[in-house]
What does this fold into?
Amino acid sequence: MRPLENFYDATPKAVGFVDRKIEIPSYTVNLYGPPRSGKSWLVLDYLSTIPKRRHLYIDLQDQRVQSDALFANLQAFIDTHGIETVVLDHFEGERPLPRCRQCIVVTEAPYASNPFMPLLEVAPLDFEEYLAFEKRHIHLEHSFSLYLRTGSLPQMAQVHESLLTMRLHEILRAVFVHPNERILFRHLAKFQGKPVTPHQLYTAMKKETRVSKDWLYGTLKAWERRKILRWFGKLEQPKAARRALLFDFALPASLYFEKSLMGQLYTLAAEKMQRSAPETGWTDGLDLYDPQSRHALLLSPFANQQSAAAKIAGLVGEIDRLGVSRITILTISNAFAFRFDTIPVTARPFYEWILEE
It folds into this structure.
């Protein structure tokens, strides 16, 4: 039981922890979310509030651990030491969970073996959380520009700009261990915030490497479960190609010299809208549309009032068909307002809009 004793005697410290919007409850829970989203740091900070001899933190990615032997002795160790809270970090597989007052299971995909276990998703940093991590901000517009370059993974928030690409590529190699996974992610990165089908990705990949359709479709499904990939559907057309939203918007941008500002902005906007309005989709003319509130969003980074009016005039058929009641235009820094017929149109800087609840 030596590994268990080592874990029990030396819980890592969440040095420099910055508060997140999410809080771990005092009961058994499955803490899940995409790679590098801050799950381990969150749970280690939580353990600092529990007396040392009453908790046990186990990192199942520790190379010194032999899982079979560890789990064979785990319950006896818990009972002997009166441990109340057990954390199983980087948990995989179908092993039975130990009996204790509170068990925190930390995974990427939701833990499927116990459908009754409460779930708590840890997403990467939103812009508001990033501001707490980054600490260099002088003006919101400047901080948002940094956010687009560094991305939403907590460990990147304070990396010097000269090291960004190198650090992002280190993360890519760590998350996507198999070369074919890295190739698939590189092709998927071209479609960040854009419609794409698995068949398109397969066609592109097979020009570069040997890969089966079963492998590609299975990998995409696994990435969906691990929250690496989310799909954003077209309104009223469930069979149409869906837009690809990736777990960090800076990782795809780091793979190409040509930056895709629109792909990054679209990912941020779609994720925010889906949180507050799950029925949101996109149409041929509208970047985002919530049919419940009848609110349409257009991404137009450098729009002015004249160009915005001209763009909306070209969408009048779509606007009438959907019964749009208001339109928001997201820009880099411009702000203005006008009415298009009876519809209020408001242009706002993206960095202001993204901070609204």
